[in-house]
Amino acid sequence: MHFEFLVEDRSGKVLLDTILPRLIESQHTFRVIPYKGIGHLPKDLRNKSDPNKRILLDQLPRVLAGYGKAYSGYPAVVFVICDLDQRDETHFLNELQQVTITLAPCPTTFFCLAIEEGEAWLLGDLSAIQKGYPKAKTAILKSYVNDSICGTWELLADALYLGGSQALGKLGYQAVGQEKTTWAQNITPHMNIAENLSPSFQNLRQKIYDASHS
Asked: Which end of the chain has a smaller Cβ tally under 10 Å, C or N?
């Protein structure tokens, strides 16, 4: 079985590249492809998008259509992983599923949402954060409710970054993205994937297991 993972940014790739060898048995293969943001699903799902614009949802119908042809008759699955942010979870998942209904052929596709953001999966293991950042502000970390809609990356920045989310946010989008990647690099190697408390991470883990044993 081959696993193809589509993620919305580099920090997601760093996280998955680190943990997937512990989630996917060695007889299977996997690849993680990062995009440059989440974007929006096109209104016309059959409309051809510009392949040079590497925005995940903008490209999703075109990319899944390509996988549908390439993986026809081949044991492969595609995982689309993105942040829920402020969206309604049920409505968003229905929109994503509509893409697979529209396409023919379409690869076996799983949608996994990090709730609220990918940093929720790091915050699901406070011990891993403290190993990666021994000077982390414990009181802030302990105030977090798993998978809550609370400004997840901002909370993690307040615990880890000098000056907190306010100082980091002033540096701009690219600086925030780089810091998120650094967090993933420093925290993910310490994660206990079996005991991560994030429900959305547990959902990812279960879907990978189910696909591996289907």
From this structure: C
